[in-house]
Design a protein that fits this description.
The protein is α+β, with helices and mostly antiparallel strands. The chain is built from 21 helices and 18 strands. A hairpin with a 2-residue loop joins strand 2 and strand 3. Helix 10 runs parallel beside helix 12 and helix 18 crosses helix 19. The longest helix is centred in the first third of the chain and has 19 residues.
Length: about 675
């Protein structure tokens, strides 16, 4: 039953359909409705639950009115909307006797007076007036009652058409297959795609079996089916679009610092100058805290980031960033809003620390890169109590925050540097390599300073205060607020913890020392351990030896008394730190020259000549290796582990000892020195 036009109500005595059965309303009590089934069983149902049921309906009344789709009405042509509005005036006059918008006190026309004529008589009069059948007026009125103005619209103007029109379904299927095949190939033209589609259709169904449209229609059909796929645009955008997940994007949330840290590596869009004079791009590896958007650490290396670089990134995250000469005092942690005094009580190094928080990660998210799934990195995370979570293959959205941070670094930092390459070749200027002026150590220092001044103190759009959502917060401010909310203390790493993050090799300590990759390391401190069992039965008595791939001039041996630093026996000949790839390159040069590449002395002489020739402009391949060697050793070089005391400490030190004080990268040329003395 209804209580007025368009206002349906439910009253006791009404029959309803609910749950596939019919019930009579017995009583209405607050928010409950008492029902009696046809069999006499009574039940009580909440009114909100009853009316939300999909099959709920009141028997014997007109259906509930439907709101007009105002958005669709706005898309109709003006003549169609005007015709519907005119029909609405007639329907209102049939229902009430008066058209809409008349002056108060106006009398209905005789044939439309509800007090004199019934509804059927009024509809017949309207049919005579408009010159249509009574059935037409009845249908229009019925649609108007259910749908309002939308029910009076000429439905021919609202029809939607398939994007493929009348094209054969077999042809449409072939076009879809051809478009899928364009995802990972170079971008072509529509004519190439048409040719491939025709070949596919003829090969599948036979020549002339499937009707083909004209070329113009073919082009329209392809454009309609390739919408949003970038089939004929950028190949990179096309692959990225195809790689997007089908479901909705799920943003990554973290409620406290270190809850999740995302790590990734990518080539930086800046050309740098190596020590040899060659220019190349550097690899940037960063760790981003999700909760505060703090870049916990950023490490630059020559292209070819290694697992030890990722491990050292963890070490840099867990120690305070020291202030450096030339930095503004405003970059000190004491000048920031972070809880400096609370942190100073935990670690005295905070007194000279820069304004960047020390964040201990609970979980790090990595991709499938060899750098991050290596045993070195996983072992470092396990030792530090950090959980490692791998993202799904080819799913950059699993670590979308660090991916977006790379883009922000390029736009906020890299584009203002000399030698900026742009994110792709089409955006690159002329002779960019000639504009490169920064070395990797210089760029590393500049990047570290920018992270403090330009990133940590800059408001980030994704960081909002719950009480002031319109105001963006900086990473340092967000860190301070989260520390106050959940409490947080940084973990302090010892100096020897760096050695734990280095790669490990298990070797025997012989009379001549330790042999690794045809290199011999020896020291007087190894005396008590020569030809001795290390105590590790699982390793057959071998000793645990750690080495830095970027500085093979020494190794570190773990003993029960502590660490022993063992230098390379031929270090005075080379007189410069060198990396593992430098040693491998020297062995290749020795083999190409017909020399014994397994002889340590021979390779050492070749290595010395390699470093010497680099000063005079050697071939690019050699210069690149030398440049990478020197840069890797110069940037954040580790401190040597303290030597342990032994009985041999009182004995005279061998001639190898002074090499520890040699200025890095100095080259000792024996031939030139002899000529100078002569």
């Amino acid at each position: 039953m209804t209580a007025g036009q368009g206002k349906p109500v439910l009253r006791p005595g009404d029959w309803i359909t609910y749950g596939g059965d019919e019930f009579q309303v017995v009583a209405l009590a607050g928010t409950s409705v008492r029902l009696r089934s046809q069999g006499g069983a009574e039940s009580a149902v909440l009114a909100s639950y009853l009316m939300a049921a999909p099959d709920f309906a009141v028997t014997g009344t007109e259906p509930l009115p439907v709101l007009e789709p105002s958005g669709l009405l706005a898309t109709l042509p003006e003549p169609v909307r005007a015709m519907a509005a005119e029909w609405e005036r007639h329907m209102v006059e049939v229902e009430t006797g008066l058209p809409p918008g008349v002056e108060p006190g106006t009398r209905p026309r005789g044939e439309y007076d509800p007090a004199v004529h019934s509804l059927m008589e009024r509809m017949a009069a309207k049919a005579d007036e408009l010159g249509v059948s009574v059935r037409t007026v009845q249908n229009r009125r019925s649609r108007y009652v259910r749908q309002g103005l939308w029910g009076l619209v000429d439905q021919r103007a609202t029809r939607t058409w398939e994007a493929t029109g009348r094209a054969d379904v077999r042809l449409v299927t072939a076009i879809h297959e051809a478009l899928d095949g364009e995802t990972h190939v170079s971008t072509g033209t529509r004519s190439r795609l048409i040719r491939r589609v025709v070949k596919m259709v003829e090969a599948t169904h036979g020549e002339g079996v499937v009707p083909l449209p004209s070329q113009r229609t073919f082009y329209k059909l392809i454009d309609a089916l390739s919408t949003g796929r970038h089939t004929f645009g950028s190949a990179v955008t096309r692959r990225q679009t195809a790689n997007r997940p089908e479901g909705p994007f799920t943003p990554t949330f973290a409620d406290r610092p270190g809850e999740q840290v995302q790590i990734d590596s990518t080539p930086l869009d800046v050309m740098v100058v190596l020590d040899s004079g060659l220019t190349a791009r550097a690899d940037l590896t960063i760790a981003v805290d999700v909760a505060t958007r703090t870049i916990c650490a950023a490490v630059l290396r020559p292209v070819g980031t290694k697992a030890v670089d990722a491990s050292l990134l963890l070490a840099r995250m867990l120690v305070p960033e020291p202030m450096r000469p030339g930095w503004s005092q405003s970059l000190r942690m004491a000048a920031s809003r972070m809880p400096h005094m609370r942190l100073l009580e935990v670690d005295a190094r905070m007194e000279q620390a820069a304004a960047k928080p020390v964040i201990v990660p609970d979980t790090v998210v990595i991709d499938g890169g060899k750098v991050f799934i290596s045993d070195t990195f996983i072992r470092a995370c396990n030792r530090l109590g950090v959980s490692v979570q791998r993202s799904r293959p080819r799913t950059p959205t699993d670590k979308a925050i660090v991916e977006a941070t790379f883009s922000a670094i390029n736009s906020l930092f890299c584009q203002h540097l000399a030698g900026y390459t742009g994110r792709e070749v089409s955006r690159r200027g002329e002779r960019v390599a000639d504009q490169a002026v920064w070395t990797i150590p210089e760029l590393q220092d500049l990047l570290d300073e920018w992270l403090l001044a330009g990133w940590q103190a800059r408001p980030h759009d994704a960081l909002r205060d719950p009480y002031r959502p319109k105001k963006a917060m900086s990473p340092n401010d967000k860190y301070a607020s989260l520390v106050a909310a959940c409490g947080y203390l940084p973990l302090v790493l010892r100096g020897e913890d760096y050695l734990e993050l280095l790669p490990v090799a298990w070797r025997a300590v012989n009379d001549y020392g330790i042999k690794i990759s045809y290199r011999t390391y020896d020291s007087a401190d190894l005396g008590p351990h020569r030809r001795q069992h290390s105590g590790h039965t699982a390793k057959r008595g071998l000793w645990e030896v750690h080495y830095d791939p970027y500085d093979l001039s020494r190794v570190f041996v773990r003993t029960q008394q502590g660490w022993i630093t063992v230098p390379w026996v031929h270090l005075p000949l080379v007189n410069a730190p060198f990396a593992d790839f430098t040693w491998s390159h020297a062995r290749r040069l020795a083999a190409e020259a017909g020399l014994d590449d397994t002889s340590e002395a021979v390779v050492a002489r070749v290595l010395d000549g390699l470093l010497t020739r680099a000063e005079h402009g050697p071939d690019k391949r050699t210069a690149k290796v030398v440049g990478r060697t020197r840069v890797a050793a110069a940037v954040h070089a580790p401190a040597a582990a303290p030597a342990i005391e032994s009985d041999a400490a009182s004995e005279p030190e061998p001639e190898v000892q002074p090499s520890a004080a040699v200025v890095p990268f100095g080259v000792f040329d024996a031939h030139a020195e002899a000529e100078r003395w002569l």
